Amino acid sequence: MRLSRYFLPVLKEDPKEAQIVSHRYMLRAGMIKQQAAGIYSWLPLGYRVLKRIEQIVHEEQIRAGHIPLLMPTLQPADLWRESGRYDDYGQEMLRIKDRHERDMLYGPTNEEMITDIFRSHVSSYKDLPLTLYHIQWKFRDEMRPRFGVMRGREFFMKDGYNFDIDRDSALHAYNRHMVSYLRTYERMGLTAIPMRAASGPIGGDNTHEFLVLANTGESEVFYDDRVTALKLGDRAVDYDNRAEVAGVCDEFTTLYARTDETHDAALFDQIPAEHQKVGRGIEVGQIFYFGTKYSEAMGATVVTPDGSKVPVEMGSHGIGVSRLLGAIIEASHDEKGIIWPEGVTPFPVGIVNLKQGDAAADEACAALEKALLAKGLEPLYDDRDERAGAKFATMDLIGLPWRITVGPRGLQKGVVELTSRRSGESEELSPEAAVERIVEIYAAHR
Ligand code: ATP
Ligand code: MG
């Protein structure tokens, strides 16, 4: 993509309404535009990151054996009357009447609808286990939408629902979700710690929230800091192997890590003092096992091998896809702007032409662009007739992890400069070697 033809409405001034760094940088980098409180347009750069995050979520859900589908944003109120939540949900639910005076709502979540789909088509244990999920816009009429995409009213969420024959199978589905979430966040360059959570309006007994540590987070967290060193890495987990999946969950949930809602001071005090940490965190996901709460209320039953009919065991599992953009920026930025982890960056690399109009520089940039595209790595080429300083400032703000700088002087020596956004370190290389290096770096991420 050539910057001269792109739509990147960068702001020079800090927007006054932004209280936290991720919101400020998302506005300044031209990623989002607010249309109403908590409702945003996703401008091209923001949209690219959103799609990238969505893609990683899909890949890891599919790897875990979960099946994507798509449910609508608008739902009939009658489904929610069956579960009893139409009245319980309160003012966060946006209620709408259609032209025939039928009660509708903009879905804040989808337990009722997925249970309806299940009961219409599945009636035997032979069709289990089954986990269906979608990535769809949600609406919650939050009292205080704030911090940009962190607490929106309209937001993009992955929500998945498991259907199982018994409690053990449902707990295996719960564990599968935990492992797939750990892998998802790691691919995004995040450390998200599973913390024991209190069950909210969805109800249930087994539930963990995933928190990214950040001092702007809305949750207070208490943890043993050794938990932050745990990594899944690239180990292969067999998602069908119950013991193996449970083992990984144990590894990540044995050390103390809780939010203020479940905090237990006596247990916390048993952690060696040097490892006790109190901080703040951003909730980027949550998993729930709630058993038969919805299946019983809505008559979603299955026939067991011995011929009896039982309500299906369920759980629901969410990831805050749009919130993740904010969380990643909170965890990865400096005073110049965003620093995207390679896994989610909108463009893998930026090309800065120091002397637009210089025949050798223009030609070398075009050749780099072509070589990268041929490797499936689309660069953002700043081909504007701007000062070098302005081009660097834009690249630093939008946070591409790698930059190739091309100028007439370097080209005389046969080199370009490859710079890491994170470390700030530069290296002179031939253009071919620079492309090679970028290809190697991204081989591990795509
Ligand atoms: P919160 O406690 O932050 O209000 P929640 O527990 O009500 O969130 P869930 O029902 O668990 O939210 O939804 C799954 C995920 O969706 C959350 O973990 C969070 O990452 C994301 N999410 C929830 N509400 C919002 C919102 N208003 N804006 C953006 N993302 C949200
Ligand atoms: Mg939650």
Automatic annotation (TrEMBL):
SUPFAM superfamilies: Class II aaRS ABD-related, Class II aaRS and biotin synthetases
PROSITE patterns documented for this protein: AA_TRNA_LIGASE_II
Subcellular location, record wording: Cytoplasm
Major localization class: cytoplasm
InterPro entries the UniProt entry points to: aa-tRNA-synt_IIb, aa-tRNA-synth_II, aa-tRNA-synth_II/BPL/LPL, Anticodon-bd, Anticodon-bd_dom_sf, Pro-tRNA-ligase_IIa, Pro-tRNA_synthetase, Prolyl-tRNA_ligase_IIa_type2
Enzyme Commission (EC) number: 6.1.1.15
Catalytic function, reaction form: tRNA(Pro) + L-proline + ATP = L-prolyl-tRNA(Pro) + AMP + diphosphate
Domain Aminoacyl-transfer RNA synthetases class-II family profile: 38-341
Alphabetical keyword list: Aminoacyl-tRNA synthetase, ATP-binding, Cytoplasm, Ligase, Nucleotide-binding, Protein biosynthesis
EC category name: ligase
UniProt entry tagged with the keyword NAD: no
UniProt key word ATP-binding: yes
Gene Ontology MF terms: proline-tRNA ligase activity
Pfam assignment, any one: tRNA-synt_2b
Subunit structure: Homodimer.
Similarity section: Belongs to the class-II aminoacyl-tRNA synthetase family. ProS type 2 subfamily.
Role description: Catalyzes the attachment of proline to tRNA(Pro) in a two-step reaction: proline is first activated by ATP to form Pro-AMP and then transferred to the acceptor end of tRNA(Pro).
Protein name as it appears in the record: Proline--tRNA ligase
Organism, as annotated: Pseudogemmobacter lacusdianii
Annotated gene: proS
